[in-house]
Design brief:
Elements lengths: L6 E6 L7 H11 L5 E6 L5 H6 L8 E4 L4 H7 L2 E2 L1 H6 L4 E4 L5 E4 L2 H12 L9 E5 L3 H12 L4 E5 L3 H11 L3 E4 L4 H5 L4 E4 L23 E4 L8 H8 L4 E2 L2 H6 L2 H8 L7 H10 L1
Helix pairs in contact: 5-6
The protein binds 2'-monophosphoadenosine-5'-diphosphate.
GO molecular function, one term: shikimate 3-dehydrogenase (NADP+) activity
Enzyme class: oxidoreductase
Family: Belongs to the shikimate dehydrogenase family.
Length: 278
Amino acid sequence: MSEKIKKSAVTGHPVAHSRSPLVHGYWLKKHGLSGSYDRIDVAPESAEAFFGDFAASGLVGANVTVPHKEVAASACDWLDEAAQTMGAANTLWLDANGRLCGSNTDGLGFLGNLDQLAPEWDVSRESAVVLGAGGAARAIVWALLSRNFTHVHIVNRTLEKARTIAGEFGSKTIAHDWNSLGKLLGKADVLVNTTSLGMTGKPVLEIDLTPLPKSALVTDIVYVPLKTDLLKRAAERGNPTVDGLGMLLHQAVPGFERWFGVRPEVDDALRTIVLEDL
Ligand code: ATR
């Protein structure tokens, strides 16, 4: 008797642009597995019902993208620490008892990317500067605190949003507006852009990098273009830099492992396939 094919998918609204099928499709083929990974567009009005009765979808698990990460987390019977802290889940699976479990792997994706491309990056963990205060910033603050940064500074145009995140994470996380940036850069070990500035079609991120120590690692979650203006300017002055594509690839690893039982690698061939699709 042939084994039932394990089905998985990315769920969100919209999902047509998602590159996750490319990533999981590559790993399924590489490991000779007979699973599937599709796109399922879940309309906002159907999200509660879809995630509330996830078993009815016939999927063994799924990724969740905007705008459903919070609804998905609420529907879970169990959440890991990251998803609990962020109140948002991007990876779901059904356990042996049919309970819906959720994780948030965005922060792990961020760390996996830096560990792979800049293994020396966390030598000094005094001060991190995170630009932006959206969902991605929340995941990255979680990631930096998990690596024991002493101070994580969130700099955002709308100070209130930075304050909300800082309030969720406690006293090591401090909210600022853009006026404080120069002073903060002077002490930064890591600078992360989580705003949409620098993305193709958006304004460039105009910040003066002069105060930033040359040893500070600069990374951007924007990956279209792969080398943002920020990364180019940082590299020109001698800072180590890491582009954001790997965060997208690494955040997919835990889900694939849960659903298909193989821990996949983010290798050069995968990077090339996704780059060609950008
Ligand atoms: P996500 O949840 O996907 O991370 P988001 O909520 O759209 O993204 O947030 C984008 C981030 O980019 C926000 O921090 C936003 O700042 P505000 O909170 O003040 O809106 C930031 N951002 C976008 N355009 C900006 C601009 N022109 N100048 C400064 N910050 C900007």
